[in-house]
């Protein structure tokens, strides 16, 4: 009986739409279909998935299979931080470090616009804190 309940639970968990779509994004990315994967992550993000926002920031920050874009990475990571995704607030500080004030201002504008188009239950506020210097040893 316990085995049946456990099996049913696993089937339910892995067949829910959130897991299916997010898993699809990871599958697409691992197969090199980066544009489709990014679209899938953006869909998950628009539905309120903070981890998808974080992943979009990582993709842009690392520049693996896409051109590195630290301003776009800052935008996505700031949005993930607003959703209280673990470590996003630290990473957004690191990403802000090499950006100019104008780049940060534009990324904040884009993040606020994205949030207007994709309500997340949070109000936009800039993640930029010019007095904060991140501890790079804490980053993972």
Question: Can you characterise this structure?
Answer:
The protein has a single domain (2-138), classed as Alpha Horseshoe (Serine Threonine Protein Phosphatase 5, Tetratricopeptide repeat). Helix content is 66%, strand content 0%. It contains 7 helices and no strands. The chain has helices at 2-14, 17-30, 34-46, 50-62, 70-82, 88-96, 101-117. It is globular, with a radius of gyration of 17 Å.
How would the blueprint of this fold be written?
Blueprint: H1 2-14, H2 17-30, H3 34-46, H4 50-62, H5 70-82, H6 88-96, H7 101-117
Helix pairs in contact: 2-3, 3-4, 4-5, 5-6, 5-7
The H/E string reads HHHHHHH
- What is the name of the CATH topology? Serine Threonine Protein Phosphatase 5, Tetratricopeptide repeat
| Low-pLDDT windows of residues | 2-20, 134-140
Tell me the name of the CATH class: Mainly Alpha
Based on secondary structure, the structural category is: mainly alpha
| Tally of helical segments | 7
Task: Provide mean pLDDT, rounded.
Answer: 80
Strand content: under 5%
Outline: globular
Quaternary state of the chains: single chain
Which radius of gyration do the C-alpha atoms yield? Answer: 17 Å
* End-to-end gap: 42 Å
Percent in helix: 55-70%
> Biggest β-sheet: count, sense, barrel?
none
Number of strands: 0
Assigned CATH architecture: Alpha Horseshoe
Characteristic key phrases:
140 residues; mainly alpha; Serine Threonine Protein Phosphatase 5, Tetratricopeptide repeat; disordered N terminus; disordered C terminus
Give a quick rundown of the structure.
This protein has 140 residues and is an all-alpha fold.
């Amino acid at each position: 009986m316990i085995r049946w309940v456990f099996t049913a639970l696993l089937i339910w968990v892995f067949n829910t739409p959130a897991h299916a779509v997010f898993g699809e994004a990871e599958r697409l990315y691992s197969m090199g279909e980066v544009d489709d994967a990014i679209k899938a992550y953006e869909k998950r993000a628009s539905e309120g998935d903070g981890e998808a926002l974080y992943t979009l920031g990582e993709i842009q920050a690392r520049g693996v299979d896409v051109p590195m874009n630290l301003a776009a990475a800052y935008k996505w990571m700031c949005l993930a931080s607003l959703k209280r995704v673990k470590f996003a607030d630290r990473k957004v500080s690191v990403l802000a470090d090499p950006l100019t004030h104008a780049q940060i201002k534009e990324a904040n504008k884009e993040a606020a616009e994205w949030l207007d188009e994709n309500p997340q239950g949070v109000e936009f506020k800039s993640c930029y804190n010019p007095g904060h210097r991140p501890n790079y040893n804490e980053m993972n």
